[in-house]
Write a structure and sequence with these properties.
Shape: globular
CATH topology of the largest domain: D-Maltodextrin-Binding Protein, domain 2
CATH architecture of the largest domain: 3-Layer(aba) Sandwich
InterPro entries: Bact_solute-bd_prot1, SBP, TAT_signal
Biased composition (Polar residues): 39-55
Protein name: Extracellular solute-binding protein
Organism: Streptomyces griseoaurantiacus
Helix content: 40-55%
Radius of gyration: 22 Å
Number of helices: 19
Number of strands: 13
Distance between the termini: 24 Å
Strand content: 5-15%
Region (Disordered): 35-58
CATH class of the largest domain: Alpha Beta
CATH superfamily of the largest domain: Periplasmic binding protein-like II
Length: 437
Amino acid sequence: MSASGRTSRAAGPLARRRFLAGVAAGAAALTAGGCARGTSTSAQPGTTSISNDNATWDDGYRTAGRPLKKITGYSLRPLSNPSVTSYQQVVQMTLQTSKSSDLVKWASGYQLKRLARAGGLTDLGGVWKSYADKGWVRGASRDAFSYRGTVYGIPLYESYYVLFYSKPVFKKLGLTAPASWEELLHCAEVLKRNGITPFLASQVGGWPAIEWFQELVSKTDPHFYRRLVAGRASYTDEPARRAMDLWQDFMRKGWMTPPDFDQARGPGALKEGTVGMFLHGTWQAAGMAAADMKPGTDYGAFLLPTVRPTTAKSVIAESGVFVVPSRASSHRAAMANVAAWLDPSVQRVWSDFLQDSSANPEVRSSNPVVAALQRDIARDHRLPLVRYWEASPPSLIQGNTDDLGGFMAGQTSPATTLRRMQERAHDEWAAWKRDEA
């Protein structure tokens, strides 16, 4: 990457060749020498192994595996690797070998497309059709789980990006969840006037820098957001400029936490009343529970209003996936479990564990705050939008996320940030299309 933040066109293919060579070498080493992880993926009667990068979900997999076993005869055996970089490398190195696990947790969208492009995944089109016939998946989301028309992933969960807020603080200050942009600004002004930071905004860990960008762009113009992430619009176009100006205005007014504010402190900050609103995925409801906060009493949540009342309503959705390696040691068991994963009896248990919504639209969350959001989304026929992290080629998203982090830290202006993002988009979309060809 050059000093300007622009990805070199010449360096792209070379970097990709080196990466693929490294993956091939690593896979050969694992296959030849074996390793503890390879041994743990060996077939074990009555179970299917899951490669997982979130160890806090291990108990949830085991719990959901109980009703799953009643249907298929196979429980779930999570194998966790909490290091994101290490996890991705291990999955990519073992995917086409006998060392692969039976099921792999992965991201949807272009993250899945890149994995599928390398080969080694099972076609899950039949499973998807069965789910669609039962009404257990949303037809509009199929592309996020497919590559070149073939389905390779089954939804693991579905979360929505919303603003959690402190109900005691709002009640004390005479505020209610805002239903319009003007009401949102009023809430922020009142909170700030009373010594409370209105919004949590963070870049700790890198990826959180996308949250306010995707929300402000989509609530400015959701159709533009779709074109932008598909490479059919420019980051320097007017809707993106307007969104970045709003973001900068919020920061200048002191309405946002410093960018080094760790999101892990979010639930505690709401509980203490030092922060009024926290933009995050609905999966954060589990974090609220861990902070001993009761839904509907200690916290509520709402979807960010549109900047203009005439703008179409939308919602940013995030969904992980299960994929099945074609060389999984217990391939038949893995296929049985993905074919039953969205069964309501399984999803009821899984959704309760996550305190979140289910990927099966017929399963309502037992968390009353999340359930109310589900009703809101269905009632308003909100346009579903893929989370920014999965919505474009991964190398483009990673670089642009770094630029957004720099903007949050005050290193670049909105115009400079968007120009760099567009330069990278030009190069990375061209590289993606070359690789596709």
